[in-house]
Amino acid sequence: MLKAFIKAARLRTLPLSISGIVVGSFLAYANDFFNGLICVLALLTTIGFQVLSNFANDYGDGIKGTDNEDRVGPQRALQSGTISPQQMLNAIKITGLITFLIVLSLIYVSFGKENISYFLLFLVLGIASIIAAVKYTMGDKAYGYSGYGDVFVFLFFGLLSVVGSYFLYAKQVNFTIFLPAIAVGLLSVGVLNLNNMRDSVSDEKANKRTLVVKIGAKFAKYYHYYLLMVAFLVALLYSVLHYTSPVQLLFVFAFIPIFNHLYTVYKNDDARLLDPELKKLALSTFLFALLFGIGQVL
Predict the structure, then answer these.
(1) From 2's CA, which of 37, 179, 238, 270 has a CA 20 to 30 Å away?
(2) What share of the chain is helix, strand, coil (3-state, %, to 5)?
(3) Is 14 helix (H, G, I), strand (E, B) or coil?
């Protein structure tokens, strides 16, 4: 049973989910605000959000029948019957509670009792993140079934992850930090869009109205190109604005596989064959976070 839950947690999604924290932490280090304990707790918080989201997606799509024989990706826990709906629901509740406790610890370590307004603000953001992780596919008004998943991924895995984590360290914000936050957000949305392109046929049959289902395969490709190219441009703009050394352009190497991926998408005529590209784009996003961050501190 433990092995089944580990598989359902989809650990392969974790590098992508922590990319924003990696960037925010490197930027804090570059500006002499870094705190090791905050870093560890921020990473654990994001991992908690991601695992919670993965459990909730498994449950929501399983209950709604979206995970069926038409689905292209790997078989999920409810779909295969290895975990019952009640067992998954219990796992969601436990994971949500543990994540909430980590959120409280993170906020307290960062702000203590002295900054009660910041404490309350991030408490609200933490609760909102937990709700967003669960409501993507669960419930009658799951926003993932209405085409709003892209917006939430951009906000939570891009802006909040990078800018929010930086603020936890620095207690202040340089507005140019929104540029790498936008880059991470757009790359993360790119992974979601690729997933939705792959699953568009089965999603449409299950009445899961993702953005890809709404705009169609042709425009979903164009949307994909724009997401990844704009991510490159805003990261480049940040590096130009804060330029001190060529090493700050180290992140460009992460875009070599990303642009190669774009060519693969361009040549593709059957979105179901894009499944291997998901891992490539997710790992390339994590590589971008590492190289971008290293370029800021060297």
Answers:
(1) 37
(2) 80, 0, 20
(3) helix
User: Rounded distance, CA 99 to CA 53, Å?
Assistant: 11
Residues 6+ apart with CB under 8 A from 274: 194, 197, 198, 264, 265, 268
Q: Are 284 and 261 spatial neighbours (Cβ–Cβ below 8 Å)?
A: yes
Tell me phi and psi for residue 35, to 5 degrees.
Answer: -140, 120
Q: Hey, what are 154's tokens? A: 């951009």
- How many whole angstroms separate alpha carbon 20 and alpha carbon 188? 9
Rounded distance between C-alpha atoms, residue 102 and residue 79, angstroms: 30
Which amino acid would we find at residue 142?
A
Please name the residue ranges forming H helices in 136-272: 149-153, 165-170, 178-198, 200-205, 211-241, 255-267
Maximum C-alpha span of the chain: 57
DSSP sequence for 33-73? ---HHHHHHHHHHHHHHHHHHHHHHHHHHHHHT-SSTT--S
Cβ-based burial of 33 (10 A; exposed 0-12, middle 13-18, buried ≥19): middle
Instruction: Show me where the domains of the chain are located.
Output: 12-297
pTM of the model: 0.93
Among all chains, which residue has been given the structure tokens 């695992």?
Answer: 51
